[in-house]
Amino acid sequence: MSLDFLEDLSSNYENALLLSGFGKFHLMLLTICGLIYMNTAVGVTILSFVLPSATCDFQMTSEDKGWLSATPMLGMLIGSYFWGCLADTKGRRIVLVATLIADGVCGLLSSIAPYYLLFLLIRFFNGFNVAGTMGIVFPYLGEFQPTKYREKILCWMELFWTFGIIMLPGIAWGIIPRSINWKSGIFFYHSWNLFVAMCAVPSLVLGLWLLAFPESPKFLLEHGESDKALEILIHIFVKNTGQKPEEYACKSLRGPIRSGKSVRSLRLHNPNELKELLAEIWSQTKTLYKKPYLRNNSITCGIQFCLTTSYYTLMVWFPELFQRFDEFEKQYPDVSASVCGVSSIVVSNSTVIPCDQNIDEKVFFHTIIIGLACIPTSFWLPLCVHRLGIKFFLVFSLTAAGFVTIGLYFVRNSLENLILSCIFEALTSLSISTVYCVMVDLFPTNLRVMAAAMSMTFGRSGALLGNLIFGFLIDFNCIIPIIIFSAMLFVSGFLCWLLPNTGSEALE
């Protein structure tokens, strides 16, 4: 018996997905998308170990470190919209492959950069590419999932982020303490350079591996390529069931009727077709700022700005704070001091820039503990999301994180700082992943990645601003950024409360 899907696009695509089954293909897709998301966790937070390690080679002050941690965020700010536009017009998979390979190449180049400004420039392009990966991987994964499984599958991505947070300090601990000191003229190569290079390799491997996976059939259907979409659904059916292609019940699949040339077929090197493509991108961008998408777009942009400002700033600076606590406790054993007090004392006692390439092992250990602290919430989210609702997790985690951030001002030793850092990371990383899950349901296929990219642009602008503020104020008046970041988390929690309920309907 053949089924012709001729009416409601969303429900008919949903039926076609259900007919293809759920099994081996979806688990493999979750695996590679999870590894990609884990890799972005490494790419986003890698500088947290480069900051203390490269201080001597680049002669960095706290302000220089602020610029170095902020520059990749500037790349993300610009790259989010650029890659989002391409993904919504040219395809999810091809853009994911491009961003992963470009990120890997830039990572390898940055590992041999001999100058601070050159290193800064290349890490800008790392951020530019990572933004594309983060904005696309959730929509790409979500568009393969039936409604019954979609929200839970997307929520499992948080566990991969947690593994990335755990893996990064493990790699750093295994490489950075090693004695690698090579210098010839202006060029040098130390253990932290090798660490940067090793963290770039997975991007290249994942980019090549992704070539074995298909384009999103939902995206192809939206762009009028129903035959290709049907071929992919048949492929999924065969992988999941082990049956023959002709046993797939759906024999035809129709997408929306479109006049003129498909946007996917427009060539970037043809001036007229490029102009047509840019016009389509501008039209889709304007649509996000009109009803019925204006409200949800505004709310998600606000959430990303407030949440990302706090999360990425503090996560990048946590190892630096651990290092400063270690230096303080060595100078003043059995003396208690706040984060702000420790920073001001350590800096005021330093007449020159510290030229110690070594990071105390406790910094690696503490950062691994922060990652391990996220494991309970990483399981709690997918196992209970249908029972408690995704909005509950967002509002609860962000509000609690706001109070934890305030608590950073009251810590008096490295142990208290570690405990609050663990709670902060567990709550805010949960929120980051959950926001991406929600956005898959809030917008239609032709706007989905662009909407995620737009919100990420606002988020990275906040992260850029936050890292600059923290870099300039941590040594002299760090209570100001603590107040700002905690207030932003409270605001983002309130904005999440305004979001509609998601996860119960088929994708548009």
Could you explain how this protein is built, in words?
There is one protein chain. This protein is an all-alpha fold and 508 residues long. It is built from 21 helices and 4 strands. It has a two-stranded parallel ribbon with strand order 1-4. A two-stranded antiparallel sheet has the order 2-3. A hairpin with a 2-residue loop joins strand 2 and strand 3. The longest helix has 38 residues. It is globular. The relative contact order is 0.16. It is found in: Membrane.
Condensed summary:
Its main location: membrane. It contains 21 helices and 4 strands.
Major sheet characteristics: 2 strands, parallel
* Strand and helix order: EHHHHHHHHHEEHHHEHHHHHHHHH
Low-pLDDT residue intervals, each spanning 5 or more residues: 1-11
C-alpha-based Rg, rounded: 23 Å
Number of strand segments: 4
Main sheet: strand order:
1-4
- Helix tally equals 21
State the secondary-structure class. mainly alpha
The dominant shape is globular
Helix residue percentage: over 70%
Rounded mean pLDDT is 81
Strand proportion: under 5%
How far is the N terminus from the C terminus?
Answer: 27 Å
Keyword list:
4 strands; mainly alpha; globular; 508 residues; two-stranded parallel sheet; two-stranded antiparallel ribbon
Task: Tell me the layout of helices and strands.
Blueprint: E1 3-5, H1 9-19, H2 24-45, H3 47-53, H4 55-58, H5 62-89, H6 92-110, H7 116-142, H8 147-155, H9 157-175, E2 181-184, E3 187-190, H10 191-209, H11 217-222, H12 226-241, E4 250-253, H13 271-288, H14 294-331, H15 339-348, H16 361-372, H17 375-388, H18 390-407, H19 414-442, H20 445-473, H21 479-497
Parallel strand pairs: 1-4
Antiparallel strand pairs: 2-3
Subcellular location: Membrane
Transmembrane segments: 27-51, 66-87, 94-118, 124-141, 153-176, 188-211, 299-318, 363-385, 392-412, 418-439
Pfam family, one: MFS_1
